[in-house]
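Quick start: load a record and inspect it. Here is diguanylate cyclase:
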Amino acid sequence: MTLHPPTILVLLLLGYAMLGLQLAMVRRRLHGSEALRRWSWGNSLLLLGHLMLLARVVVPLPVSVIAGNGLILLGECAYVAALQQFITDRPLPRAMRIVCALSVLAMLPLALFDTPMRVFIVSLVTPLPVIWGAWQVWRARDQVERSLWPVGFTLALIPLAFFGRAADAWLHPQAYHDLAVPNTMQVMMLLTSFAALLGAGFGFVLACTERATRSMERLASHDHLTGALNRQAAELMLEHALQRARRERSTVVFVLLDLDRFKLINDLNGHVFGDEVLRRFAQTVRERLRSSDVFARYGGEEFALVLPDSDTAGALGVLDELRRATAEMGLRAPDGRAFVVTFSAGVALSPGGDIDADALYRDADTALYQAKHAGRDRSVLAEPELTGSRPGVPA
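Running the structure step on this input writes:
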């Protein structure tokens, strides 16, 4: 069976309509996805563009040619803007916006040329935006979701198909006088763009869904204010560290950290400033830990560290460094005064993983209580036999 170009355009319209339905359903689930919204706009513009190309039987040819190809280019630019937003969380750079604008403007004089020359011009100009999109995916391939890789690959097929048709139209113009007549290169270009653009669309939806799933998983295991692990996730990590320590006969250090007089910070400076203190402190701690260390927020102003394969000297050295860095965070209170934050810490060790997680927490908690009552702004090493609960102490 021979596929005529108008038949392929009808298939394209059906494909874009199906993709548009899927985009609408996914957008309802993924609220606030700016990248997905831009891709939806691109899909709608491509749908209208191909509809205009088919409408040449009822509208003047110049209107069909200029509006159809212009809308297709705008749709591709929206696709590329969606990719840019998804990958970098930024809008298209100014140079690329200029390229998109000039590409659309290049469609205005199309009606002045005969059909072979129109095909040549369109085939050279149309793929320009998607080249940038494919390059963006390739450049960020190690940072983005793997489900986005096929999007870049399929977009890279589009310029190959269009440039091939441009060369064919230049070398064999007689084959392009009537685009309704089957032409091998024309059919191959349409089929390739059909598969590539729709494939890229469905791939982009999959990438957005994957990112949203990862984000929800992160929210389930991390504290939303500080980005630290939450208590439940940290307790699992502590259990894993203890199991490994038993196998390797190494030592796990567990530390409870508590910001000094944090209630007073909130009372005197407001909760907004208090939240900023927590965020800055968490950032300071994360920047000074090993990749194997665990940092978690246990609640309020209390945090915890799990330091696998460490010892007393190493743990106390880390805490001394954190103490200096915390004092030098450069915070300023709402009234402009320099504000210095300190913390107290209770340190408990599990040599060979022999002390379980509950006992480690009790030991560290008791040591933290002692640090508070000894004047704060210090670290206290727990004795293994200390397992009592901490009495109420003002923060």
